[in-house]
Amino acid sequence: MKTSELIAALAADSVPERVHLGRRFAAALALGSVGAFVLYALVVGPRPDFLAALGTIRFGLKFVDALALALPAVLLLARLQRPDAKPGTLALWLFAPLALLAAAVAVELIVVPQNEWLRLLVGRNMWYCVTMIPMMAAPILAALIVALSAGAPRHPGWTGALAGAASAGIASFLYASHCPDDSPLFVAAWYPLATLVCAAAGALAGRRFLTW
User: Fold this and answer.
1) Whole-angstrom distance, CA of residue 94 vs CA of residue 161
2) Phi, psi of 58 (to 5 degrees)
3) Is 27 within the bounds of a domain?
4) In terms of residue numbers, what domain contains 140?
5) Would residue 70 count as lying in a domain?
6) Neighbouring C-alpha atoms within 13 Å toward the C-beta of 35
7) What is d(CA 37, CA 13) in angstroms, rounded to the nearest whole number?
8) 13: in domain
9) Long-range contacts made by residues 135-139, C-beta under 8 angstroms, separation at least 24?
10) What is the four-CA torsion angle of 198, 199, 202, 206, rounded to 10 degrees?
């Protein structure tokens, strides 16, 4: 059977199968998120001044940016688990967190003296950030890869990378409540690096487990 014929056959699956895939994906997302939260509760936890920090724009920006990555990534991933699916304009929303960070960094560079830039960029917990976000993302990514293996993504590597990015977005949302560094310079440098680590792991897992 030719690849095009196989794709057409898979795309012609019945409506119940679509529901089955959707439920499987949702269950994996929920289970993986619970696993990430357990790691967060046991290893990380909120920062001591969490309640006081809630009133600051910089602190809130970290959560908004994490959601700006996680939401479109999850929605796009749910769509791409079928071989006939196309990203569409939803893929453009993946640039939203980058645009948001770029705007925040621009404001930061204007209002903060230049001699403070390096200190804010390095922060206090950069390696902990780059380590813990992928660690908390791991159970989410593993659960998503298992769920996606029931479908037939047309581009396994890219789909796996997207699963890694979605996992990183959720993990970043959790980690943001612990992170003592609120500067957009810090967030723009180290959170995307952690996301790239997760995306790379997802791409490798996708090529290994999602290829059909």
Assistant:
1) 13
2) -60, -45
3) yes
4) 21-209
5) yes
6) 19
7) 35
8) no
9) 135/39, 135/43, 135/171, 136/36, 136/39, 136/40, 136/44, 136/171, 136/174, 136/175, 137/36, 137/164, 137/167, 137/168, 137/170, 137/171, 137/198, 138/167, 138/201, 139/31, 139/32, 139/35, 139/36, 139/39
10) 180
Structure tokens at 164: 């890694």
In which residue are the tokens 């490798």 written?
204
Instruction: Using the Cα atoms of residue 107, residue 113, residue 119 and residue 123 in order, give the sign of their dihedral.
Output: negative
Q: 203 near 157, Cβ under 8 Å?
A: yes
Please list, in sequence order, all residues whose beta carbon lies within 8 angstroms of the beta carbon of residue 60, skipping any fewer than 6 positions away.
Answer: 54
Is 82 within 8 Å of 210 (Cβ atoms)? no
**Residue 51 structure tokens:** 């309640």
Q: What is the pTM of this model?
A: 0.87
Do 135 and 168 contact (CB within 8 A), yes or no?
no
pLDDT confidence tier of residue 16, bands split at 50, 70 and 90: very low
Q: Does residue 6 belong to any structural domain of this protein?
A: no
For 183-195, what is each residue's pLDDT tens digit? 999 999 999 999 9
Q: Report how many domains make up the chain.
A: 1
